[in-house]
Structure formats: C-alpha cells, structure tokens
C-alpha cells in the first residue's frame, strides 16, 4: 500500500533526479539493458518504459537491474497494467490520465503514480485525492508552456512533469516554470540510434539533456 501523500513525495524524489525523464518505446527487449546503461551514464537515471509494445515488460525487467537506474512503467491504463508493471520491477508508474480504478490499483500495489492531467479541473480532481505531483499531458497539444504557466497561477501547490511534444528545442520553456519539476522526452533515445545500437551517441544526448537548467 502507498498513500497519495507518500506517492507524491516519491514522485518529487524521482522528478528531482534529473531535468529530463526519458520516455522510451522499446521494440526489442535485447536493447533494453544497454539503452538504460547509456541513459544512466549520461545522467538520466529515471526511465519511463511505455507499455506500448509487446517487449515493454521484458524491457522493464532488464532495466530494473541496471545500477543507478530507476525504471518506471508508462502508459498505465488499467489495474492489470499496474499488476504487470509491478511484477516486472517497475518502481513508479505514469499514466496519460487518471481513473478511480487506476489510482486505487496503484495505491494497493504500492506503486507511486504520476497521473496525467491536461486541465485545471483534472489537476484539481487529483489534488482532491491528495496528489500534488502530476504529469501534464499532452503538453504541447494542450497549450504548451503558456498553458501550464496559466494553470500554475491559481494552483501553485501542484507541480508537473510535462510530457508530449517536449524536445530539446522547447524543454527550457517548461523547465523555467516554477510549477515544473522535470519534463519527459523521447528525443534522448531516437529509434534509429536504438535500432543501430549507437549507445555512445545516446549517452551524449542524455548528457546534454542532463545539463538543462531548471
């Protein structure tokens, strides 16, 4: 079991590890460990593996053993997703939105949930449950940094990890906001570099992302 307050505290710790959480879509579980090692070596220890491919759970299992890494499961939608993620070794969960069933499943499983919210109403609903660290998703499609800044004015007690359309080009727009703890991005692990096993180049991308100011 985990309470909303405990989950929020844990999420603050995870978001505080680096300015960027890599959002990973892993097609081949064999690439998972070297990918995680490259990202961690580059200064990005918190890793979100999205449950969008058949290899995702095996990828989480492989990454869970990487020293210095903290692997989480993204795209949690159902209570069964939560069970599968925890069984695979995920230490935190990320969802595109939030339902009562999903939140309850994460609390029962002891999995800190970084739940998605795109509006003030959605953010307030999670705050009412005791969650004050959320994912702003889809960030760019929901108005980008200006929208998140506007939400922060009346709700300064809620902090976010914006994800969805965040890139090296606009990351600083988000990270400069007082209600942003970190951001999620996929650019640090391009599909072609992962496919070709260019771990040194991925480590370089990670290192550049780790130096972003917030």
TrEMBL record:
MF terms from GO for this chain are: 2-dehydro-3-deoxy-phosphogluconate aldolase activity
**Which pathway does the protein contribute to?**
Carbohydrate acid metabolism; 2-dehydro-3-deoxy-D-gluconate degradation; D-glyceraldehyde 3-phosphate and pyruvate from 2-dehydro-3-deoxy-D-gluconate: step 2/2
What's its catalytic activity? 2-dehydro-3-deoxy-6-phospho-D-gluconate = D-glyceraldehyde 3-phosphate + pyruvate
Q: Which InterPro entries does the annotation name?
A: Aldlse_KDPG_KHG, Aldolase_TIM, KDPG/KHG_AS_1, KDPG/KHG_AS_2
What EC number(s) is this enzyme filed under?
4.1.2.14
As for family, the record states: Belongs to the KHG/KDPG aldolase family.
Summarize the subunit comment. Answer: Homotrimer.
Q: Which NCBIfam families match?
A: eda, PRK05718.1
Question: What is this protein identified as?
Answer: 2-dehydro-3-deoxy-phosphogluconate aldolase
- The species is Algicella marina
Report the gene name.
eda
